[in-house]
Amino acid sequence: MSADRAPIALNLSTPSAGRRGKPPRHFADLSAEERSAAVVELGEKPFRAKQLATHYFTHLTSDPEAMTDLPKASRDALAGALFPPLLRAARVMQADGGTTVKTLWKLFDDAKVESVLMRYPSRTTLCVSSQAGCGMACPFCATGQLGLTRNLSTAEIVEQVRAAARSLADGEIPGGPARLNNLVFMGMGEPLANYKAVMSTVRQLVAEAPDGLGMSARNITVSTVGLVPAMKRLAEEGIPVTLAVSLHAPDNELRSELVPINTRWSVDEVLDTARAYFDVTGRRVSIEYALIRDINDHAWRADLLGKKLVARGQGWVHVNPIPLNPTPGSKWTASDPRVEDEFVARLRGHGVPTTIRDTRGSDIDGACGQLAAEESA
Prior knowledge:
Elements lengths: L31 H10 L5 H12 L13 H11 L5 E8 L4 E7 L5 E8 L4 E4 L3 E3 L8 H5 L1 E4 L2 H16 L12 E4 L9 H12 L13 E5 L3 H8 L6 E5 L5 H7 L8 H15 L3 E7 L7 H12 L6 E7 L13 H13 L20 H7 L1
Parallel strand pairs: 4-7, 7-8, 8-9, 9-10, 10-11
Antiparallel strand pairs: 1-2, 2-3, 3-4, 5-6
Helix pairs in contact: 1-2, 5-6, 7-9, 10-11
């Protein structure tokens, strides 16, 4: 293997990385069978696991005081053993009249992650983190510049979701009580580099109550910078989540600078695998493209991207250009609106469905990783 194709160290399944310890075992880390075994180990009948699942996934609580259908002694012991605190809010910021809420969480070992809850007139969406930091090293990304601290456990991801769902259910977000409709793995980290925990989370989210949140897999999006083997594995899961590919450039020369993993799997390899994902699942793939002023926003690059996508067929893909949310002190900034409009027009001219992605929270350090970076400074 040549030097420029040297292997990049990736771990697609290990639940923790680096020097930090493993999070304590939590109810959300366990399968239904494991939950029953866990309550039996604690001296309870197996049916207590179903009661706990109902409280956690249906009532969205892990507070033993709320578990009034369990004996007092049992609820305290079960909650103490199976619901250890995993997240604590270190900072909460709001925008858009309180309908966008960004939370900086500290984990059990003081690692930091972020989630963003966004309420729209007709839907609610949560963006979750799957890693503390990120090892992909994309230079324009605040999280990428933090480096990778560790993978999150399944429960640490699920707890971000439960907290948001509870906030909506309690009417804490303007607009009255609501359900969480959509989930996107577009927060801190590369989701497919923490494959095992991410897929375990997805299975719990789509499981019917009381064993899960009962969400539609079609309303869950898993993003990736293009880890081809994991993309292929995802296609075979039988869970029709939406795949989003963070491309950011249609040519290998530039993409290798913006997305270093491109030296391992090229633009064409990534797009071929994305097309294959559509063939297997029938789910249209999203191409995410951060528009960076004078870097990747040229009209000829829009044409090249359009040609590459159309060459792989029609109806399989949708492009989301994203005005870059710049980080303080960074040389990277958003494209001029006129350049952005031309880029979109070029793609549409090739017959590629294209929608500028709504960017919320620019006034609250909206780019993932900014709050964590500030706290670490």
